[in-house]
Amino acid sequence: MSIYLNKDSKIIVQGMTGGMGAKHTTLMVESGANIVGGVNARKAGTTVELGGKELPVFGTVEEAMKETGADVSVAFVPPAFTKDACIEAIDAEIPLLVVITEGVPVLDTAVVVQYLEGKSTRMIGPNCPGIITPEESLAGITPHTIAGKGPVGLVSKSGTLTYQMMFELKDFGFTTAIGIGGDPIVGTTHIDALEAFENDPDTKAIVMIGEIGGDAEERAAAYIKDHVTKPVVGYVAGFTAPEGKTMGHAGAIVSGSSGTAQAKKEALEAAGVKVGKTPSETAALMREILQNL
Predict the structure, then answer these.
(1) Can you give the residue ranges of the CoA-binding domain (predicted)?
(2) Can you say which residues are annotated as belonging to the binding site for substrate?
């Protein structure tokens, strides 16, 4: 089992013909993901060869879905056009939309997240590495060689910490690893992923990685306390961040005790989550749990 993405997922790439889109489409093809085409209105009707596969380019997401049966779109679209690309995919009722783009204006993301209400699309991102179900499919930029299949579910705000955690626990493996993105507003939250992992019979334990700023981790802690029966370990990036300073990566700001790594750690521990002070310590806590399962 997996969450949101599996070997049957058919993936299109919005912005496939751009530099980043082409590069990562190639890597997704090489990972074994079923990439079925791309979208670029200016290049509709052409094909491009990426990763040894001839891929058709369509004018719209709707057309791509109709022609290929695609049920996932990965968007590598410049920040200025990301909002329109998302709305196009949502209007086409793509089941899963993964938005990799960094630097999307927060107001644009807010408009898209509001537009999602009542629609059938699940959005992951923006500013995220996407989602990987090892040995089955990859929608995003996570290196597929880091880890194989196993019993761990991973949800993370940080891309690089996703990769590090997968590497640290590669001898156990993962059902699905999902990078939700570090922006103040994202489509899929820690809580959404925790709920999906709780309902997935093959996920035996969950790693949750957060970052300073906002209250997403505190809300996740409350959710874990009330709804999650599986063991959860956590890590919060930013223990050494100076108070009151906006940190570039997460767009996170820390004021007083709210939003600090320590406050988040305490909220998670109060919910029964073991929290490591470093990624390696967090991996060791998970290793201990898995050995005793």
Answers:
(1) 4-104
(2) 163
